[in-house]
Amino acid sequence: MKFDVIIVGAGPGGIYAAYELMQHNPELKVAVFEAGHALNRRICPIDGKKIKTCIGCKSCSIMSGFGGAGAFSDGKYNITNYFGGTLYEYLGKNQALDLMKYVDEINLKYGGEGTKLYSTAGTRFKTVCIQNDLHLLDASVRHLGTDINYVVLENLYEYLENKVKFFFDTPVSSVAAIDDGYEIICKDSVYRCKDCIISVGRSGSKWMESVCKQLDITTNSNRVDIGVRVELPAAVFAHLTDELYESKIVYRTKEYGDKVRTFCMNPKGAVVNENTNGIITVNGHSYEDPEKQTKNTNFALLVAKHFSEPFKDSNGYGESIARLSNMLGGGVIVQRFGDLIRGRRSTESRIKEAFITPTLDATPGDLSLVLPKRILDGIIEMIYALDKVAPGTANEDTLLYGVEVKFYNMEVEVDNNLESKYKGLYIIGDGSGITHSLSHASASGVHVARKIASEYKKA
Asked: Under a CB-based contact definition with an 8 Å cutoff, are residues 429 and 201 in contact?
C-alpha cells in the first residue's frame, strides 16, 4: 500500500503533524502507524481494588496509543524555551515559541477553551526563590488537566479519522530507505511512502536506536533523569500552585554541585504507576474537574545524569535502578521522609499513621537501598531547600515514591528542518532526543508538516 506520508507514532508529534498536513494539503494520502490502542480502548486495568499493581499488559495503555504517553498526563503545555527540549537550537527561539503558541490555539479550539494560562512573569516568588538559592524558570503554562486533555485528543481524532488512515495495534518493525522513498515494515505487511515522519516518543527510544543503527544515522549520547515523586498536603504548595500552577525550580547542591529540579507538579493530583518497556516507575496526574481532585499535591524531584565516553547507555543505567526498585518492592516503593532521614524503612503501619493519605497503593520500603547515594543526598538537600519557600515540604510525613525515571532517546542527528541525512525522513518529538515535553513535541510535528506540505506545493 502506497502513501504520500507515513507517520510512525500517534503521540503529540505525530498527531499535530497529521493535523497540520491536513490543514495545508488535505489531498495528501497520509497514514499513521501506532503500536498502541485507539484512544477509546486505552484503559489501564489498575482500579486500586481488584487490581492494585501493574499486570504487564502487552501494550501499556498509559504509555502508548493515540495521544502517546501524554494522553493521561495532566495536560500541561509549557510555552517556553527554558525547558522542555532544545527545539529552539534548530528552529530559532522566536519560531519555536510561535509554534508552541499555535499548538496552544489548536488545543483551545478543540476543547481546551476556558482553561487557564499561568505565567511566572513578574511573580514575587522568583525573588523569594533566589533569596533561598533556588531558581524559578520562566514559562507560560496552559493547564488542560487530565480530563480536558482527553477531550482535546478525542476531538482531534474525530477531525482526523476520516482524513487520515490510522493503523492501531500495529508496531513497526523497521524502516528501510528505497529509491523513491521508504518502506515501513510491519509484522504482516509492508507499506511505502515518499516522506516518513518518525515520532515514537520516549517509550520508543530503544526502537529508535535500532532504526538509527540500521540506517547508519548518527546519534549522540543524551541523559537520564532519576529521582522520586514527592507527595504532600496540597496546602503546603498552595501559595505557589494557586498563582503559578507549575513551578519549575532548580537547585544546585552544596555537596556535589549537581542540579536537582522540580518536574511535573500536580496540584490536588494523584500519583500513578507507569510501565516503560516492562519496568514500573512512578508519575503523577491532576484534573481540571474539582470533583476528581484530591487533598494532596505531587511533583517529581529529578537529578539529571550526563555520561561521558566510553559509557553510552544512559537509559540502561536508569532502567537498572528502576528494576532494583521493582525487585525490592514488586513495583513502586513509598517511604516517609522522616523514616528516610532516620535511616529506617517505612512499614505499612508507619504509612497508615502518617497525617497524609497516599493516592497510590505502593509498597512501603527503603529508597536508600535503591537510589545511588549521590542522587539521594541531592534530593534530600533539595527538600530542605524547598522547605524554606514552602514550609512543610520537609515534614516527617511527606511521602517519597521511587523511582521516577525520565528516559531520553539518544539525540538523533538532523538538520534545522528535523530532516535526517535521508531526504524525506524526519525524526521529531521526544523520540528524537530533541524535545522533552508535550508542547515542544507538538511544535516539532507542526514544523515538519509545513515543510513537507510546502514541498508538495512546489511539485
From this structure: yes
Q: Indicate the pTM of the whole model.
A: 0.84
Q: Which residues make Cβ contacts (< 8 Å) with residue 440, sequence separation at least 6?
A: 84, 85, 87, 96, 100, 434
Instruction: Say if residues 225 and 219 touch (Cβ distance below 8 Å).
Output: no
Rounded-to-integer distance, Cα 60 and Cα 438, Å: 19
The residue whose grid cell reads 537547585 is 251
Q: Note the Cα 293 to chain centre separation in Å.
A: 21
Question: Is-cis flag, bond preceding 391, omega within 30?
Answer: no
> Which SS3 state, helix, strand or coil, does residue 86 take?
coil
Residue 145 backbone phi and psi in degrees, to 5: 85, 155
> What pLDDT is recorded for position 369?
96
Helix and strand totals (H; E) in the chain: 12, 22
Residue 23 grid cell: 490543514
**Distance of alpha carbon 263 from alpha carbon 246, whole angstroms:** 8
C-alpha cell read off for 63: 504509555
Helix (H), strand (E) at residue 12: helix 12-24
Please give the average per-residue pLDDT across 110-139, as a whole number.
94
Task: Give dist(CA 192, CA 3) in Å, integer.
Answer: 6
Predicted local confidence at residue 48, as pLDDT: 65
Q: Residue 53 pLDDT > 80, yes or no?
A: no
Q: How far apart are CA 171 and CA 168, in angstroms?
A: 8
In one-letter notation, the amino acid at residue 82 is Y
Map 103-143 to HEC letters: HHHHHHHHHHCCCCEEECCCCCHHHHHHHCCCEECCCEEEE
Q: Summarize pLDDT for 351-402 with one digit per residue, the tens.
A: 999 999 999 999 999 999 999 999 999 999 999 999 999 999 999 999 999 9
d(CA 56, CA 60): 7
Residues in a beta bridge with 405: 226
Q: Which residues contact 84 (CB under 8 A, 6 or more apart)?
A: 78, 435, 436, 437, 439, 440
DSSP 8-state symbol, 280? E
Q: pLDDT-based confidence at 199, cuts 50/70/90?
A: very high
The amino acid at residue 298 is N
Distance, CA of 328 to CA of 4 (rounded, Å): 49
Bridge partners of 272, per DSSP, are: 283
Dump pLDDT digits (tens) for 166-197. 999 999 999 999 999 999 999 989 999 999 99
